[in-house]
Amino acid sequence: MHYRRAFIPGATYFFTVVTAHRRPVFRSALARDLLHQAFRHVAKKRPFTVNAMVVLPDHLHCLWTLPAADADYPTRWRLIKTWVTQRSRIGSPRPIMRTLWQARYWEHLIRDDQDYRQHVEYIHYNPVKHGYVRKPVAWPYSSFRQHVRDGLYEEDWGSTEPGWDGEVGRE
């Protein structure tokens, strides 16, 4: 199957990446730590900015901005997925799992400021949407608290579901 993707240098993209068979891999502190290490490692060699992110047991959402002359997010995702998968097997007779990731991921090119805001809200509200917590601030595996510290949100934001125009996000 051929996927049509937008490749715009310096653009901001929303991603949804899902584990194979929606297994709750990221309930594991080891898996979350490996994911964090992978992001740091790949960003050193192929820079990108993570604007917002949430990690749930079986998937993650994030918003990235790429460097001005670079549109190669597929290589970054391949490197991140490979890093986590390979290191989940090191020194363990039983890896976290043989197939860690769904083969594909969802990508959306952010079009404007409203689209950006709606996707950041979608990311931060996702743990509430899935019933893990009552408020985004209670979910520890999210950029929400950093956004609160930066003055972008009030701590009690997300007590009710945000209203979005059109389709936002992808599960």
Quick structural summary:
With 171 residues, this protein is α+β, with helices and mostly antiparallel strands.
Description:
- The chain is built from four helices and four strands, in the order βαββαβαα.
- The protein is of the alpha+beta class.
- The chain has a domain of 100 residues: 2-Layer Sandwich (Alpha-Beta Plaits), CATH 3.30.70.
- A hairpin with a 3-residue loop joins β2 and β3.
Largest sheet properties: 4 strands, antiparallel
Total number of beta strands: 4
Mean pLDDT: 89
The CATH fourth-level homologous superfamily of the domain at 12-111: Transposase IS200-like
Task: Please state the second-level CATH architecture of the domain at 12-111.
Answer: 2-Layer Sandwich
* Strand order within the widest beta sheet: 2-3-1-4
Brief descriptors of the model:
4 helices, 171 residues, four-stranded antiparallel β-sheet, globular, 15% strand, Alpha-Beta Plaits, alpha+beta
SSE arrangement:
Layout: E1 12-18, H1 29-45, E2 49-55, E3 59-65, H2 73-89, E4 106-109, H3 113-129, H4 144-149
Antiparallel strand pairs: 1-3, 1-4, 2-3
Helix pairs in contact: 1-2
